[in-house]
Design brief:
The longest helix is centred in the N-terminal third of the chain and has 22 residues. This protein has a single domain, classed as Vaccinia Virus protein VP39 (Rossmann fold, 3-Layer(aba) Sandwich). With 234 residues, the protein is α/β, with parallel strands linked by helices.
């Protein structure tokens, strides 16, 4: 998997954010179905039952935010794109949601939560920021707090910029504008081991399609690695 110097990585992440900012307004006119294999993922989330206060990282257009409100007392939804946040606020329309615009690679929460939820964003976190992203998650959780994420490893051959070994892909907005985006094609077992090395006890499960979900928390005998940061797009 490729690695990038600091300035190159910052440029790539800036381009990724610009891509989702460009997409933001279009999401308001789309349906509210869950992305991907919504049936299995929705069932997994329902079984997980994210009760209490939830922090949603990279909320995007608010599709998952509305689902989380079924069980939770309140949701703090964070995203780097003001366009996505505007779409999410219009879609959700609930005073139980606090929306925050922030670059998650530099943001720190102002409180702790019972659950951290990550919907289709973990694969957009570059390898260089993986440990610091999970440090942010650890710092956001109350003692005994839990994590749930859903994602996919889907990349088309024409999206690949530097071949399948690279995590950098190229995607286009409906008007044809091209942007570089991070897309790490995790395999569930590999991701589970990677998280275990950081002190997490999270089981990662594949669906019948190209999607996967993970649920768990910090291991009783381990702590997540130090650092700071996360990602601000969805």
């Amino acid at each position: 998997m490729d690695t990038e110097p600091g300035n190159e990585l910052d440029g790539l992440l800036g381009e990724q954010l610009a891509y989702y900012r460009a997409l933001g307004p279009d999401y308001l006119h789309q349906g509210q179905d869950l992305p991907g294999d919504g049936g299995e993922l929705a069932e997994a989330l329902e079984a997980f039952r994210p009760a209490g206060s939830v922090l949603e990282l990279a909320c995007g257009p608010g599709v998952w935010t509305g689902q989380l409100l079924r069980w939770t007392t309140d949701v703090t939804a964070v995203d780097g794109s003001p366009e996505m946040l505007a779409t999410a606020a219009a879609r959700v329309g609930s005073d139980r949601v606090r929306f925050i615009q922030a670059d998650l690679f530099g943001w720190q929460p102002d409180r702790r939560y019972d659950v951290v939820f990550i919907g289709f964003f973990l694969s957009h976190v570059p390898a260089e920021r993986f440990a610091s992203f999970w440090s942010l998650v650890a710092g956001a959780l109350k003692p005994g707090g839990r994590v749930f994420f859903a994602d996919d490893a889907y990349r088309t051959p024409d999206e690949l910029v530097n071949g399948p070994a690279s995590s950098t892909i190229r995607r286009r907005t409906p008007d044809g504008t091209s942007y570089r985006v991070v897309k790490v094609p995790y395999q569930p077992a590999d991701l589970e081991r990677k998280l275990r090395r950081l002190g997490w006890d999270i089981e990662v499960t594949a669906t019948a399609g190209p999607f996967y979900w993970g649920a768990g928390g910090q291991a009783a005998d381990g702590q997540a690695a130090g650092g700071s940061g996360a990602g601000g797009v969805s």
